[in-house]
Design brief:
Largest sheet: 7 strands, mixed
Oligomer: single chain
Distance between the termini: 47 Å
Helix content: 25-40%
CATH topology: Metallo-beta-lactamase, Chain A
Number of helices: 9
Shape: globular
CATH superfamily: Ribonuclease Z/Hydroxyacylglutathione hydrolase-like
Number of domains: 1
Structural class: alpha/beta
Strand order of the largest sheet: 1-2-3-4-5-6-7
Length: about 280
């Protein structure tokens, strides 16, 4: 893993293989970590942070509940693990289904046959829940420095952003897959909320964005996402009103490519889920 220096107080790993980005904000007397990646990444992340600063890691902030952002939580058991209330509820729900010990063992066994590298991401994981939940906003203050975590929804019902005002840096979570097509097929996705969050980000004093995946970016990437989601929505709504079928509406050739080829399974599943949301809203 590569923990790159963004500023003197912020560092991030934006090149993980098969996992989401993560980072750290170094305050005067403590460190705030954003997302934990998978277990093996989390161990490396913590080692690199502790090589970078002698300040104690006090908080782990979770931007959303997808496994590549929370399966390393156990590495930060000695910290306050903070998330939106719905994120903890979602993790508890998954612990009784696809994240149960029996289910994970079965998934690992199957993956070892076809994709050993992916299987290794789940091996040895002890899923660790947040220790503190909030409803709208959570703030950490250290003398003149502040970190603000805000629930926004969009990508998932439990999505939050993390903002460091002193340096105008935003951790967007998976609201941004920088230079790549996003994953928008979570069953709790709301593309309208997603669009509104991105519009709100444009109004914020943000200079640097550490996305959930991909390289560090700025508001130009936010605008690109707004333009794409709005274009997809306008086309889908028009076709829904025209009585087109779901298959006709979700054909890739009807939409801009946006960093991907039409055969990308992430693209197909995303468009299908967005269609479900807008079709339901259209009544």
């Amino acid at each position: 893993m590569t923990l790159g220096k963004v500023t003197d107080r912020v560092c991030a790993d934006t090149t993980p293989v098969g996992a989401g980005n993560a980072g750290a904000i170094i305050l005067h007397d403590q460190v705030v970590v954003v997302d934990s990646q998978y277990l093996k990444h989390a161990k490396e992340l913590r080692r690199e942070i502790e090589r970078t600063t002698s300040n104690r890691i006090r908080f782990l902030l979770l931007t959303h509940s997808h496994s590549d952002h929370v399966f390393g939580n156990e590495v930060f058991r000695d910290c306050e693990i903070v998330a939106h209330r719905s994120l903890k509820a979602r993790m508890e729900e998954l612990l009784s289904t696809t994240w149960s010990k029996e289910s994970l063992e079965k998934q690992i066994a199957e993956l070892r046959k076809t994709d050993p590298e992916r299987a290794s991401r789940f091996e040895g994981v002890q899923i660790t829940l947040p220790t503190h939940v909030f409803d709208e906003e959570f703030k950490i203050t250290d003398k003149d420095l502040e970190v603000v975590m805000r629930h926004v929804g969009g990508h998932t019902k439990d999505s939050s952003i993390v903002y460091f005002p002193a340096e105008q840096i935003l951790f967007s979570g998976d609201l941004i897959f920088s230079k790549a097509f996003p994953y928008g097929a979570d069953p709790t996705v709301d593309p309208d909320e997603w669009l509104q969050v991105l519009k709100n980000v444009l109004e914020m004093p943000v200079r640097t964005i550490i996305p959930g995946h991909g390289p560090i970016c700025d508001k130009r990437e936010v605008q690109a996402y707004i333009d794409f989601i709005k274009t997809v929505k306008d086309k889908m709504i028009a076709m829904i009103r025209a009585g087109k079928t779901a298959e006709e509406i979700t054909k890739d050739e009807d939409y801009p490519p946006f960093y991907s080829i039409s055969a990308d399974p992430r693209r197909q599943s995303t468009l299908a889920q967005w269609y479900k949301v807008w079709h339901q809203k259209a009544g």
